[in-house]
Amino acid sequence: MTNTTTKNIANGHLSQTNGGSNALPPQNPNAKCIVLVPTQDMIEGGCEEGLHELEKMGYTVLRRWGCSDISMARSQMAADALGKGFEELMWIDSDILFDPNDVNVLRSHNLPIIGGYTQKKGTAALPASFARDKRKLHSVSKVGLCGWNLWRLDFF
């Protein structure tokens, strides 16, 4: 029996296998995306559960406490994350309940900036109207910084 070695370079990382027995683990595709959660003083329980699931999926989650000036905190968090080499910033407000798999759905669209609808506080209304197909993308001309969105490096 011959022992074959295969080397592949993908995304700047070398993977090597010897007949499948000594395979190096591939790079986690979620490693280039950081989840940023600025908050004044707390993260809702359901949100924290989702954040823990994202960590299990290989995402880096940064929770920043004491953010009384949320705009300044977001700016600093973005600068820090980009300075550390992250290519995608996933912003999640600390009071949002979400399905962690939806982060992958947003990322799969490969757009410079994309967000999801979130319910307005204190009401059952959404901040926009949309077609019955909730998985369909909708282009918008103006949007405020919502609590559930993804920015890619090419957005900056």
Question: What descriptive keywords fit this protein?
Answer:
single chain; 156 residues; alpha/beta; Spore Coat Polysaccharide Biosynthesis Protein SpsA, Chain A; five-stranded mixed beta sheet; two-stranded antiparallel sheet; 3 helices; 23% strand; disordered N terminus
Question: Could you give a short description of this structure?
Answer:
The protein is an alpha/beta fold. Helix content is 22%, strand content 23%.
* Mean pLDDT, all residues: 76
- What ranges have pLDDT less than 50 throughout 5 or more consecutive residues? 1-25
Cα Rg: 19 Å
What is the element string, with H for helices and E for strands?
EEEHEHEHEE
Helix content: 10-25%
Number of helices: 3
| CATH fold assignment of the domain at 33-119 and 140-155 | Spore Coat Polysaccharide Biosynthesis Protein SpsA, Chain A
CATH architecture of the domain at 33-119 and 140-155: Alpha-Beta Complex
Q: What is the percentage of strand-forming residues?
A: 15-25%
**Apparent shape:** globular
Largest sheet: 5 strands, mixed
Which CATH first-tier class of the domain at 33-119 and 140-155 would you pick? Alpha Beta
Please tell me about this protein's structure.
With 156 residues, this protein is an alpha/beta fold. It has a domain at 33-119 and 140-155: Alpha-Beta Complex (Spore Coat Polysaccharide Biosynthesis Protein SpsA, Chain A). Helix content is 22%, strand content 23%. The protein contains 3 helices and 7 strands. The strands form 2 sheets. It has a 5-stranded mixed sheet, sandwiched between helices. A two-stranded antiparallel ribbon has the order 1-2. Helix 1 links the parallel strand 3 and strand 4. The longest helix has 14 residues, at 70-83. The chain starts with a strand and ends with a strand. The model is unreliable at 1-25 (pLDDT under 50).
